[in-house]
Specification:
Layout (H helix, E strand, L loop, with lengths): L5 E11 L8 E7 L6 H11 L4 E6 L5 E7 L5 E2 L3 H14 L5 E8 L11 E7 L2 E7 L5 E2 L3 H11 L11 E3 L4 E5 L3 H6 L4 H9 L7 E7 L7 E7 L4 E4 L6 H11 L10 E6 L12 E8 L4 E17 L21
Parallel strand pairs: 2-3, 4-6, 11-12, 13-15
Antiparallel strand pairs: 1-2, 1-17, 3-4, 4-5, 6-7, 7-8, 8-17, 9-10, 10-11, 12-13, 13-14, 15-16, 16-17
């Protein structure tokens, strides 16, 4: 395959909401006929420094696309909900018939077995994009006192602010941690170096911390902040894939917070927590489908602008050690 001289990417912000002041989580999406080599795609992700850079290629079936995600550190990411929603919005702009409820299947890199089908299915109705994702119900209770002391130190909160037990979800390599209340979640100022050290530790190795609380904001059930410093994203503006484990936690592990028959949740991301200025990071509607072991995530996305990358100017694609200046990402 001959490598193109230039690539056109498109920034799309996921989990926005018409009529609300919502930032949305940026993703840069490239529609491409053939994937480039991993090194080139990784360098593009570093150069763009977006919360997630994703490449989408068509297949022989017009309803099926292959998608690959690269995080700001230049490495391939196994799954990204917000970038998949952004990709669906971009495809709907290019192919308006997708907005009539037609399904789009996104096939993931086969080396990452996120679910048995190794795919996410998106459905678009008007401005609303629904994404079927796996419900990760296999979670391990965290019993080690050392984990809680290290986590509290990294989050710069009191150990008593953490609701025990926390849970580890090995399939998506993250921890789900409920905090005592909304004030703790919003006001905490994590030490991201310490969070990265915890993520890289041998005993508690992971990709992300999913901090969640029962929301005190009207019309919202839960509130979540997601920390992913190990992949170059200190704090995610609004994460999609976090719900694969966060919603099963609220449904199956904490059985006192909500009525037992409740299976739909409205989730809010309070980003940036230190300066709201009337904005939030993202909003989502989620449904827990126990019968099919799925989470159905619904949100909107906003197209921002195109970005051109000149692959002949490799000096501009020099390795970068940092992610975005205003970091965010992922799912």
């Amino acid at each position: 395959m001959t490598q193109p001289d230039k690539l056109e990417f498109h920034q799309v912000n996921a989990f926005t909401k018409n009529g609300m002041n919502v930032l949305g989580n940026p993703a840069t999406i490239c529609l491409i006929n053939d994937f480039l080599d991993d090194i080139t795609m990784g360098k593009c992700a570093k150069e763009l420094a977006s919360p997630m850079t994703s490449f989408v290629r068509p297949t022989n079936d017009p309803h099926i696309f292959e998608i690959r995600h690269f995080s700001p550190d230049g490495l391939e990411n196994h799954v990204c909900g917000h970038a998949t929603v952004a990709a669906a919005e971009l495809l709907a702009i290019k192919y308006p018939d997708f907005r009539k409820g037609r399904e789009i299947t996104f096939k993931l890199n086969p080396k990452y077995a996120i679910n048995s089908e190794n795919s996410f299915i998106a459905t678009i109705k008007g401005n609303d994009i629904s994404l079927k994702m796996p419900a990760v119900t296999e979670m391990q209770e965290v019993k080690s006192p050392k984990f809680y002391s290290l986590l509290a130190e990294a989050l710069q909160i009191k150990p008593s602010d953490i609701v025990k037990p926390a849970y580890y979800a090995p399939r998506i390599i993250n921890y789900v941690v409920e905090l005592k209340n909304q004030d703790v979640l919003i006001n905490m100022r994590p030490d991201f170096n310490k969070l990265a050290n915890l993520a890289q530790s041998k005993k508690f190795s992971h990709e992300g911390i999913m901090a969640t609380v029962k929301s005190e904001v009207a019309q919202y059930d839960t509130m979540t902040r997601v920390f992913l410093p190990i992949i170059g994203v200190d704090e995610d503006i609004a994460c999609g894939s976090a719900n694969c484990s966060v919603i099963p936690y609220w449904k199956l592990k904490n059985k006192t917070a909500f009525p037992s028959l409740k299976d739909e949740f409205n989730n809010l991301f309070p980003y940036p927590p230190e300066q709201h200025n009337g904005f939030v990071g993202g909003v989502q509607h989620l449904k827990f489908d126990a019968a099919n072991e799925q989470i159905i995530l619904t949100g909107q996305a906003s197209y921002k602008h195109p970005i051109e990358v000149d692959l002949t100017k490799w000096s501009q694609l020099a390795d970068k050690k940092k992610g975005p200046q205003n970091p965010s990402a992922r799912p």
